[in-house]
Write a structure and sequence with these properties.
The chain is an alpha/beta fold. About 30% of the residues lie in helices and about 25% in strands.
């Protein structure tokens, strides 16, 4: 599965990763489609009438322009794996691996392999300002019940992105407090923009953004930790098991803090405002 990390991809040059995903879909009997921007949509299995798909999300582009050489030559990156204190660190010699967000793509593919029923969406051009998710095929989400993104650094999770709250207090207390008790979550953060913020605004679905195990993102020293990616996948499986094939709608709230909204006050006071 680490093969996906070796696929070079940069914003507006995601085609080799699209090809990789299409090959994966054929191997694992996943229905596929592409939108006009080139984002990739996967559907595996069927839900019954009145049920909804869990959905996972990641973006295909990176900021690592050095990977253009490998893209133009249709070559794979050389992944360096080092073991330290029982953990495996993956990097690319001389420049960043692009684990933001190829680590998220890998986690989504892991869930697709393990779960019989799942939707997944992989967006282009997130690093350019979520240009792919802004043009998402919203009709595709009509039978989606909630969305799990894997595009948070390290083992941090997002309670908000760009100030847009991803879930409400009831959802947090019913499902995510138990997640904290079972898995490692270093921090709950109000992160900058990412695709899940756009989906939250456009669909009113409960959304989550889980740490994908990458570190020092957007730098030449970027790396990811295999064990942290594996735990993120386990978190996804655990959440989908608990949430089931149900729909969780939470009306969208403005990105500006609403002092009269009790849930907004709860999260700002509990976790703070910044990242």
């Amino acid at each position: 599965m680490f093969d996906v990390l070796s696929v070079p991809t940069v914003s507006q040059h995601e085609h080799l990763l699209v090809e990789f995903l299409m090959d994966f879909a054929k191997k694992y009997d996943v229905d596929t489609s592409l939108d006009d921007k080139g984002s990739v949509y996967f559907t595996k299995g069927m839900v019954a009438d009145g049920e909804f798909y869990p959905c996972v999300c990641a973006h295909m582009d990176t900021v690592q322009d050095e990977q253009l050489k490998w893209i133009n030559e249709n070559k794979r990156l050389e992944i360096k794996i080092e073991e330290y204190l029982g953990r495996h660190y993956l990097s690319c010699e001389g420049f960043g691996l692009g684990a933001d967000d190829k680590a998220g793509v890998l986690i989504c593919l892991t869930l697709l392999k393990r779960l019989p029923v799942l939707k997944a969406v992989f967006f282009v051009e997130e690093e350019m300002g979520c240009l792919g998710s802004e043009k998402a095929e919203l009709g595709w989400f009509k039978d989606v019940g909630y969305v799990l993104a894997f595009d948070s650094p390290g083992q941090d999770c997002s309670w908000a992105c760009g100030g847009a709250r991803l879930f409400d207090r009831q959802f947090y207390e019913n499902y995510l407090v138990k997640l904290e008790q079972k898995f490692t979550i270093k921090n709950w953060c109000n992160h900058p923009f990412t695709d899940i913020m756009i989906l939250r605004q456009d669909t009113s679905l409960a959304c989550m953004n889980i740490g994908a195990g990458y570190y020092k993102y957007h730098t030449n020293w970027e790396y990811c930790v295999a064990e942290h990616m594996d735990e993120a996948a386990q978190m996804g499986i655990y959440l989908i098991d608990k949430l089931g094939n149900n729909e969780y709608l939470i009306p969208y709230t403005s990105r500006m803090r609403d002092v009269n909204n009790e849930d907004d006050k709860y999260f700002f006071e509990k976790f703070g405002t910044g990242w």
